[in-house]
Structures are given as C-alpha cells and as structure tokens.
C-alpha cells in the first residue's frame, strides 16, 4: 500500500504512491459514453464466453473506494477524494501506530468521532446490484447455494474496509483484501473483538470526547456531505472513518487494553514474558509491553496475510473474466491482482471515474472489433450503471441469452420501443 524511498539525508521514509489520479484513457468501446451504451457493452462482456478455452465462463469482481462514495464515504483519489480536497492529509502508518502511544491516541480519537458516520452508512445500489448480478449469473450456470465456487461470480475482492459487500451479498464470497473496520485486533495475541463494543469502551474512558461527539451529531457536521460545510464546522472527513479535528487535544484520549492479554499476558517468540498495565478506569498505560489493540485493517506499510492473498488469487484463477469497479488500482496489492488476471488472458472491464494505474496495459492488445465482449472501459457512477445493467439482463431473456459479436463501427441507441439499447448500423 506504500513504498520506501531514500531522502537526501540518506534515511528511509514511507511514500504513498499515486496521490493524484493518472490521466484517463479512451472509453472502450466508443459507444460506452452514454448509459445505454455502457450497459450494452457490459452486458456483452458478461455474457460472451472468454476467448481462451482454458478460461471458465465465470466472473471475478475487484472493487475499491469509488463504489462506496454513494454511501456517503470518502475516497482517496476521486474527484472529491481526500488527497485532492485535504492536501495536508497523512494517514498513520503501521510502524508509527505500533511504536508510539501518542500516535495511537491520535488515531483512536479521530476514529472514535468518525466511527459514528461510518457505522450509520450502508450498502448503496451498486452493492445491491452486485448481489443481483450474482443471482442472474448463477441461474445462467444452473448453480445456486452449495459450493460458491461454482457460481457465475467466483468472488468479490474488495479493497474497502466498510464490510458493505458482506452486508449486501453474503451468498457471494467476499475477500476483504485490506481487512474490516468492524473489528479490532490485538497486536500481541491476535484475538479480535467487535468494534461496536470497543466504541462503547472508548466513550466510557473519554467522557469529554463523548460530549464533543454528541455536539457534532447535534450540529449535523457528521451528517452533511457538503465538504465546505464540514470544514466550517471544524471537521474534515477522510477515508476509513478518520476525522481530522483542528487543534484537538489528542493527548488526553485514552484507549483500553486487550482483555485477553490483560487476563493472561502472552510470551514473545523467544519466551520473554510480557505485561499489561491499566489505570483505575481500565485504560492501557505506556509501561505495558503488550495488549495494544488496532483496527482489523491493513494499515499503510503493513503486509497482507498469506491466507488473504491466496483467497484473492484463487478467486481470480477460478474465473475467466474480471470486472473492476470504483478503483484507480493505485495500491500495488490491488494492481497486481488485475495484472494476474491479464497475464492469464482474462478479458477485463473497468468501471471507474478518473484514470487507472497503467490501464493502457489492460487494453493494448484488444481487437477493436471485440471491444465490449473482451474489454470495456467506462467512466460512470457505479450506483447508476450497475442497477441499469441488472435491469437490462433481467429484461432480455436473462444473462444466458446468446450474444452476437458486435462489428466495429456499430453504435447503440436508446430509441427502441422498450427503452433498452438497440443496434443501429
């Protein structure tokens, strides 16, 4: 999610790649600039068998923060993304969180305020459309229930930590590449605990902050999606439930210790005994050598587990095409998965507003005559496009209908009597 660079002084520091969006490329096919044209292209993409015989006629989906923008959450690199509207924003890196009590105070104070907004948000029409696509494609292959690997969608791999995919389509396997904010995990014993319970404990340990949260909610500062209005009220919303509070006294914030480590402090790999100490209210204190809780997400500079990598690669290897939604693929952990699909010869469709990291690579060998069936690039909001795609598939004899290869120069029009795209020569 980040990389090491050497400064002029010869020291190493972490760098976040691609803070700005890459320049956009050509829409593919050229007719996909309108909603009917984009729907027709994606329909063709999802219902045309992959070009190589070794590729199964199934789809894997890779998603990013752009999919959740319609749920009221901030993204990083979009039109109103944090890197664009909050130039001073700097996420906390994993090594900083582990090393510094003060850094953890800052993180948990900001996250405590932001959690209410994240907790009240939910899946949007784009998420629900993925559920419906799964149902439609499952019917095409005559599968349902049982082994999820036999369905039309082999899995959804998401970079998002909001758990909206699991909420909206629990029957489709979801690989949370970067974890989930719904839990906290102990950095010592690895036990996990529900974030809602942790939030309650934070409120008990920090009554002044709880009052501030109440005032922020009463003012509507955490409800409005107007960025300027939030800034006027002294609040900047960042991705993943982080809230930037100007001149906030973070050093007064307290957070609890891991209850498991408090009860039975673990030993290190070399057998060294650890200890956990708390104040009279149960807050972790810096003399402790274990029991630090962190969000159950992959922080900047942290490695993804081998198990999660394996699950993501398995979802790709069991599919014959990849649909990419709402991401610039700026993080290498996501880009390498798209690259894996490309190297397998899988057709790729990208629906994302703004440029995508090295996206020309995904379409450089695409036969223009097969644009649509074997490759799509669309700049359109997923919460509008995906439900329209679902309705088209439902109303055109289902996704199992035969698809005709579309010759180059063919255009789409929405002038058909039933309001669906039709072909014109």
**How large is the share of residues in beta strands?**
5-15%
For the report, how would you describe the main beta sheet?
6 strands, parallel
Number of strands: 15
Tally of contiguous helical segments: 14
* Class per helix and strand makeup: alpha/beta
Provide a descriptive summary of the structure in words:
The chain contains 14 helices and 15 strands. By secondary structure, it is α/β, with parallel strands linked by helices. The chain has a six-stranded parallel β-sheet, with helices on both faces. Strands 7-6-10 form a three-stranded antiparallel β-sheet. It is elongated and about 70 Å long. This is DHS-like NAD/FAD-binding domain-containing protein. Zn(2+) binds at residues 186, 189, 258, 261. GO terms for molecular function: metal ion binding; NAD+ binding; transferase activity.
Set out the fold topology.
Layout: E1 3-6, E2 12-15, H1 35-47, E3 59-63, H2 82-85, H3 94-99, H4 101-120, H5 125-140, E4 153-158, H6 164-168, E5 174-176, E6 179-186, E7 192-194, H7 195-205, H8 207-219, H9 227-232, E8 235-237, E9 243-245, H10 259-263, E10 293-297, H11 306-317, E11 321-325, H12 332-343, E12 348-351, H13 360-363, E13 375-378, H14 382-395, E14 411-413, E15 422-424
Organism: Pseudoneurospora amorphoporcata
Active site: 178 (proton acceptor)
GO molecular function: metal ion binding; NAD+ binding; transferase activity
């Amino acid at each position: 999610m980040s990389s090491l660079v050497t400064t002029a002084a010869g020291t190493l520091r972490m760098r976040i790649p691609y803070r700005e969006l890459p320049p956009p490329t050509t829409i593919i096919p050229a007719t996909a600039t309108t909603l009917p044209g984009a729907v027709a292209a994606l329909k063709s993409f999802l219902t045309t068998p992959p070009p190589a015989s070794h590729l199964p006629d199934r789809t894997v989906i890779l998603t990013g923060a752009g999919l959740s923008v319609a749920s009221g959450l901030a993204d990083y690199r979009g039109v109103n993304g944090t890197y664009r509207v909050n130039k001073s924003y700097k996420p906390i890196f994993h090594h900083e969180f582990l090393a510094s009590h003060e850094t953890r105070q800052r993180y948990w104070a900001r996250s405590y305020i932001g959690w209410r907004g994240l907790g009240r948000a939910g899946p949007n029409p784009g998420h629900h459309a993925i559920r419906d696509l799964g149902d439609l494609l499952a019917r095409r292959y005559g599968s349902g229930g049982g082994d999820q690997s036999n369905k039309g969608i082999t899995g959804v791999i998401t970079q998002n930590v909001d758990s909206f995919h699991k909420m909206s389509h629990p029957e489709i396997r979801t690989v949370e590449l970067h974890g989930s904010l719904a839990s906290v995990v102990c950095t010592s014993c690895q036990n996990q605990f529900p974030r809602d319970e942790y939030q309650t404990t934070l409120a008990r340990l920090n009554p002044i902050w709880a009052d501030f949260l109440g005032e922020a909610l009463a003012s509507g500062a955490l409800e409005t999606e107007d960025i300027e209005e939030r800034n006027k009220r002294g609040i900047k919303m960042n991705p993943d439930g982080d809230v930037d509070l100007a001149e906030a006294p973070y050093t007064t914030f307290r957070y609890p210790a891991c209850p498991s480590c408090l009860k039975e402090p673990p030993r290190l790999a070399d057998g060294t005994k650890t200890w956990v100490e708390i104040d009279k209210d149960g807050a972790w204190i810096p003399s402790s050598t274990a029991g630090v809780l962190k969000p159950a997400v992959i922080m900047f500079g942290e490695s993804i587990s081998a198990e999660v990598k394996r699950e993501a690669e398995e979802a790709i290897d069991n599919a014959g095409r990849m649909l990419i939604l709402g991401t610039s693929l700026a993080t290498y952990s996501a880009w390498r998965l798209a690259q894996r699909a490309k190297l397998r010869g899988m057709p790729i469709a990208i629906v994302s507003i703004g440029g995508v990291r090295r996206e020309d690579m995904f379409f450089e060998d695409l036969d223009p005559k097969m644009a649509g069936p074997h490759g799509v690039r669309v700049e359109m909001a997923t919460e509008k496009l995906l439900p329209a795609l679902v309705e088209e598939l439902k109303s055109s004899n289902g996704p199992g209908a035969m698809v005709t290869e579309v010759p180059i120069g063919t255009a789409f029009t929405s002038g058909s009597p039933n309001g669906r795209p039709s072909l014109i020569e």
